[in-house]
Design a protein that fits this description.
This protein has seven helices and nine strands. With 261 residues, it is α/β, with parallel strands linked by helices. The chain has a nine-stranded mixed beta sheet with strand order 2-1-3-4-9-8-7-5-6. The radius of gyration is 21 Å and the shape is globular. It starts with a strand and ends in a 41-residue tail after the last helix.
Length: 261
């Protein structure tokens, strides 16, 4: 069964900046989706900020296995209701891939629970990405490192929680380093943050970048059944205990009482 991916794009600079429009005439989201669709086993569609419900209505998210998120200039314009909806789907098992300046998006901050801040410099300098965890599925087909001739520098400290895996570390021409490929899990959902992707450079046309994103979609897709009852916190009755036990002390609730407590 094909992995159903949705590439969400803010779609602001593509419509307001001539340099970005020249590189991505159909938008960065369409460029990424086109690359993903070249990979066997992935069916990618797109959604943008400007669409009703930002293109992420309940039906769309329910049929999404992996959501890729790119944002920069309009993080505050994303509806909190949609952020809640995406968070719920990640808990249930939808994969989430956050790209470049999406580190400051509402959904990434929500899932991380930290400021997600970093240092940066926009000077078109070279970025060398080291695959430091070459056995990780996201690194499949990647040599020890690859380079981007022009990139926006993102540097440490990157104020995110300790990841499950550090997959890539970037070195920049100016001397900074950055943990540019990190993974986490929240509920049943896998999360991958990938740093490269500044809109004034043709980064999403790069074959290595496209390969990493394709690998990440395959890695983040959860083939298991979605979790249910995440927020129910059901009360387990005495009769359901694996070992015979008796009630000891006073209780605030009745045995087997339903509902969240």
């Amino acid at each position: 069964m094909s992995i159903r991916a949705v590439v969400w794009g803010e779609n602001v600079h593509e419509n307001t900046n001539d340099d970005v429009r020249a590189l991505y005439p159909q938008g960065m989201h369409e460029c990424i989706a086109d690359a993903l669709n070249k990979n066997a086993g992935i069916t990618a569609t797109t959604a943008t900020l400007q669409q009703p419900e930002h293109g992420l209505d309940e039906q769309t998210l329910a049929s999404t296995d992996v959501l890729l998120w790119w944002g920069h200039a309009a993080h505050g314009d994303v509806s909190d209701e949609i952020v809640d909806r995406v968070q719920q789907r990640v808990w249930e098992g939808m994969g989430l891939i956050v790209l470049h300046s999406g580190h400051f998006s509402k959904i990434f901050k929500r899932m991380m629970g930290t400021p997600c801040s970093l240092t940066w410099r926009e000077a078109g300098e070279k970025e060398r990405l080291w695959a430091i965890n070459r056995s990780h599925p996201i690194c499949a087909g990647i040599d020890g490192f690859f380079e981007l001739p022009n990139s926006e520098m993102y540097g440490e400290p990157f104020t995110v929680p300790e990841p499950m895996d550090t997959v890539f570390i970037s070195w920049f021409e100016g001397g900074e380093v950055f943990r540019s490929g990190l993974t986490w899990q929240r509920g049943a959902g896998k999360i991958f943050y990938f740093g490269p992707g500044h809109e004034t450079y043709p980064i999403y046309h790069d074959e290595n970048i496209q390969r990493v994103l394709s690998n990440a979609v395959h890695w983040a897709a959860n083939t298991a059944a979605a979790w249910t009852g995440i927020e129910d916190a059901p009360n387990r009755a005495l009769a359901d205990a694996l070992e015979p036990i008796e009630q000891k002390g006073k209780s605030l609730h009745q045995d087997g009482e339903e509902g969240f407590k």
